[in-house]
């Protein structure tokens, strides 16, 4: 995967650490959420005749404040405004809709465009104030006058009070009418039109919290079968549930778990096997999971072990002790499929991200940096060296910057365009082959 970069969109404000990135279902829109509760939507510009290479440029389309900091007076807890996840709803009319969530509250936003405004009302003036009725002597028909394009964002629904613990995932069902939200111990099913009640579909809270050994880390609906969903756990397992089998899916239909290699057992085994993200393939046949050191591909028809395992940064295996001390071992990296499920992408440290080609078994380490995002620059593969044999341009494990981490990434659903969030910068890379065709 060699990349040229049509655009580098960087808004370096300290409060703007990007916390989620999500393309809409055709890839023309890209939404990011940040630590400050803000959502920024980017739109891909159509190709223009004068600038044939301009296709692929994403420009800011709309910015709005989705969540504000709140205070839970009952529990004396501050509720952060940070956006944990954004999910687009399939477009059903001229408006776009998305769901955004922080730790507790999910909001449905509607995004509409307006390029006309009505003029010539009978009872009110242009500012909307009521006219003195004695001055109204004749009736007129109001007309629509063109104006500059305005993007309006309005909150449609607020789904509050559904979660006691922190929400880690939301996922829209393929029936387009329902969605689910998962926290550390429970998963709820909501109807998109109903805000005051949700159905609890998974509850792993033990009667006695002292017996707690496992939490839910991520959850997603199957892309085609509206009755199926998966959730991952801090113990490295995946549970596939079928809502047709029972209303409360406490008994999963399938449990995917890899037996642990006893020779690798250490104090850190359980921490590094915790699944930080799970994604169904577009085909619906496979699941992709990320844990601290690897990405794994699971076949829905094989529960005993993953069909593929890729090492993301195996050189960190000997550094787990210091990564535990600086808390990095608890970082939650996401993972993504490309549009045809043949390539996998996930983030790492030092602003590096990794790609694995499932067919050729080739892999590459790339870096998201200002330098690599100059127009038409080609991303150079990077290498991390362990031990003595160091080549030019190699970087040694000891000089990796662990504060620069790529946790959130997204792949355009149909093209070789990727979005990478590197703390407060968003990088959009496009495959060279692709842009050369235009
Ligand atoms: C994604 O956004 C584009 C651009 O507005 C729109 O044309 C398209 O219909 C959207 N796709 C879906 C599936 O919502
Ligand atoms: C055990 O560790 C080795 C490297 O030290 C690694 O290659 C292998 O995949 C590990 N096994 C499991 C089951 O994680
Ligand atoms: C996925 O990646 C492969 C390998 O780079 C490429 O051939 C294919 O076109 C990609 N699929 C999409 C839909 O981008």
From TrEMBL:
Gene3D superfamilies from the UniProt entry = YVTN repeat-like/Quinoprotein amine dehydrogenase
Q: Name one GO cellular component term.
A: protein phosphatase type 2A complex
Annotated keywords: Repeat, WD repeat
Q: Which SUPFAM superfamilies match?
A: WD40 repeat-like
Q: Does the keyword Repeat apply?
A: yes
UniProt GO MF annotations: protein phosphatase regulator activity
The reply on keyword Iron-sulfur is no
PROSITE patterns per UniProt: PR55_1, PR55_2
Membership in a protein family: Belongs to the phosphatase 2A regulatory subunit B family.
Q: What is this protein called?
A: Serine/threonine-protein phosphatase 2A 55 kDa regulatory subunit B
Origin species, per record, is: Mandrillus leucophaeus
């Amino acid at each position: 995967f060699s990349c040229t970069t049509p655009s580098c969109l960087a808004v370096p404000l300290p409060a703007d650490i990007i916390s989620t990135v999500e393309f809409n279902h055709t890839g023309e829109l890209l939404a990011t959420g940040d630590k400050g509760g803000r959502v920024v939507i980017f739109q891909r510009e159509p190709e223009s005749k004068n600038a044939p290479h301009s296709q692929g440029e994403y420009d800011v389309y709309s910015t709005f404040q989705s969540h504000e900091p709140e205070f839970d007076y009952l529990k004396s807890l501050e509720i952060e405004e940070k956006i944990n996840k954004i999910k687009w709803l399939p477009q059903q009319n001229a408006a776009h809709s998305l769901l955004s969530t922080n730790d507790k509250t999910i909001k449905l936003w509607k995004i509409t465009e307006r390029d006309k405004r009505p003029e010539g009302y009978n009872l009110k003036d242009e500012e909307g104030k009521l006219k003195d009725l004695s001055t109204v002597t004749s009736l007129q028909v109001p007309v629509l006058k063109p104006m500059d394009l305005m993007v309006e964002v309005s909150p449609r629904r607020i789904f509050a009070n559904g979660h006691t613990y922190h929400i880690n995932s939301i996922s829209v069902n393929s029936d387009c009418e329902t969605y689910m939200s998962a926290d550390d111990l429970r998963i709820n099913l909501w109807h998109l039109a109903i805000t005051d009640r949700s159905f609890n579909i998974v509850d792993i809270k033990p009667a006695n919290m002292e017996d707690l050994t496992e939490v839910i880390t991520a959850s997603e609906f199957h892309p085609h079968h509206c009755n199926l969903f998966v959730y991952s756990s801090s113990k490295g397992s995946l549970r596939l549930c079928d809502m047709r089998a029972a209303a409360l899916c406490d008994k999963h239909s399938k449990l995917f778990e890899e037996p642990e290699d006893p020779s690798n057992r250490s104090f850190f085994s359980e921490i590094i096997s915790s699944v930080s993200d799970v994604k169904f393939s577009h085909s619906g046949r496979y699941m992709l999971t990320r844990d601290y050191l690897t990405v794994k591909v699971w076949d829905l028809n094989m529960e005993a072990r993953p069909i593929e395992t890729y090492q993301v940064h195996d050189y960190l295996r000997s550094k787990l002790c210091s990564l535990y001390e600086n808390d990095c071992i608890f970082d939650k990296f996401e993972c993504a499929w490309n549009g045809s499920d043949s390539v996998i992408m996930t983030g790492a440290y030092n602003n590096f991200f990794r790609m694995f080609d499932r067919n050729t078994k080739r892999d590459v380490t790339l870096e998201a940096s200002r330098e690599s995002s100059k127009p038409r620059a080609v991303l150079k593969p990077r290498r991390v060296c362990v031990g003595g044999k160091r080549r030019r341009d190699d970087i040694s494990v000891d000089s990796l910057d662990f504060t620069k981490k790529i946790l959130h990434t997204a792949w355009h659903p149909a093209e070789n365009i990727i979005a990478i969030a590197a703390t407060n910068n968003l990088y959009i890379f496009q495959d060279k082959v692709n842009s050369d065709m235009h």
